[in-house]
Amino acid sequence: MNTAPLVETTDLSFQFGERPVLHGLGLAVPAGSIYGFLGPNGAGKSTTLRLLLGLLRPGGGTVRLFGHELARHRVALLSRVGALIENPSLYDHLTGHENVEATRRLRGLAPARTAAVLAQVGLSAAAHRPVKGYSLGMKQRLGLALALLPDPDLLILDEPTNGLDPAGISDLRALLRQLREEHGKTILLSSHLIGEVEKVATHVGVIQQGRLAFQGSLAELQARQQTRAELVLETACAATCRGLLAELRTATVAAPGTLRVPFQSREHTAALAQALVAAGQPVFSLHCEQPTLEDTFLHLTETASN
Amino acid sequence: MNPTVSTANLTLPAVPGPFVQLGRSLAADALKLRRTAALWLTLASGVLPVLLNFCIFYFKGHLLLKPGVDGWAKYASMSWQTAAVLLPLFVVLLTSLVVGVENKAEGWKHLFALPVGRLPVWLSKLLIILGLNALAQVLFVGLLLAAGHLLATLRPELHLQQFAPPVHLLGRLLGRTYLATLGIVGVQYVLGKWQSGFVLPVAAGMAGWVAGLTLLRWEHVGWIPYAGPMLTLLTTPFKPVPGMAMPTVAPHEWYQLLWFGTATVLGYAVLRWRNLA
């Protein structure tokens, strides 16, 4: 089994005029993964994806797809890539079928692929209606059909759930999982919503202000989330408690009767409760609060921007 | 089931040849023409000058033609005059409409993320425009001849049937006029590609059209692409004129070729090297 990343950027940088957008980005998308590329709006996600497709020329660094340099083999490499960048590019005066057909002809694929991908995204019934009458969600699904047309080994999707209703989002997730699990596809999808990505991704990259703030498996991100867990202690006087015990000096007084302490272990929690009671302080309640993945994501992006 | 990734995944696929890529681009671009204003404009533009002049000769022909004068020459030259005035405007609109199909759909980013070179994409649209331009002009000449024969049948008192239609002259004029529109195609294609809106390229084209017509007497008017079709007509005698022969290719038509070549090559060079989205 080959473990080389299917998508790899080395020291990738880019600037729009004088404004730097990406700084030494080192993206590594493992083969067979669903890689959630996360970041707030304007962090550089779409720019990165455009660089991966050769739509933009890097200011520095390299892009490698399938182990080959994109700058040297763009046309060959793109035949194995399907992409949906921001709003799908659709011809309003043509039907859904004709839109897919135009791309099929350009790619030189078998005619049967057109009907197959329209069925895959649930647009067979509306295939012969003009696209100008499509809803936003239908247009997004048609864009996805265009990306799926070549049965690509690598699927690059920029904010693919834009305009989809909850059922459409759920269907998309199921489709992405199926593509990865049953067909071994690699999927790189960008989003600014961690909640959307965590339900489907196996790997995550977090970008902030053009720099990677985190990259790894979803499990690694979740582990990082656990290290930021806190004990919430309800007592009579939080400030007195903090002054009494040495291990509480790092605690935060959240309210006159509330202390927040970094969580260390279950044993440490028990010892802390025992020490407070021994020191004559009442413990009304003691529980562990774990930040959500969204909190961790926000923490990562805030840390990077600081 | 865990996906497995074999080393075969890293194999570089074969790239189709440039002509295959161009053929595929043309097939896709031809499909995109369905139900477009560009296609309707092409058909209507061939019909309009002929229809206008047919009506003029049908209703007022007896006032325009003196007895014994070759009615075909008068009818063909008047029709061509209308066409030569309108042709630059037609080419401006046609080019903007064809490029506008892609601009409106934000289709360029989609096209350039597909496994096809930039040159085939660039050439394909250009060939579509050139093809539609040729179709409109051939249609015009065909309809002009057909309408002339119809006039001869419906209005025998105009005596068109006594003269031969100037097929050879119209054929040569058609070739030269087509050549004389190439500069406009080149300039407007580049403008249309790099100005994503419809208004600016059309406004620039209309300004060129007005300039071409206004400056017809200027000694350097041949360098204005938009004056090309009218200059070609002015250098074509419909009746024998002593000392005036129809040139195979007039100087202003060479300038048109120069405009066309320069604009399309520069346009491609920019496309080749600049960021696309």
From TrEMBL, chain A:
Domain ABC transporter, first and last residues per copy: 7-234
Coiled coil: none
The entry's keywords: ATP-binding, Nucleotide-binding, Transport
InterPro entries (UniProt xref): AAA+_ATPase (IPR003593), ABC_transporter-like_ATP-bd (IPR003439), ABC_transporter-like_CS (IPR017871), P-loop_NTPase (IPR027417)
Pfam families xrefs: ABC_tran
GO MF term (any one): ATP binding
Keyword Plastid tagged: no
Domain of life of the native organism: Bacteria
Record-stated family: Belongs to the ABC transporter superfamily.
Name of the molecule in the record: ATP-binding cassette domain-containing protein
UniProtKB/TrEMBL annotation, chain B:
Pfam families noted in UniProt: ABC2_membrane_4
Keywords, sorted A to Z: Membrane, Transmembrane, Transmembrane helix
Keyword Transmembrane: yes
Record field: transmembrane: 37-59, 80-101, 121-152, 173-191, 197-216, 254-271
Record-linked CDD domains: ABC-2_lan_permease-like (cd21809)
The protein, known as: ABC transporter permease
Annotated organism of origin: Hymenobacter ruricola
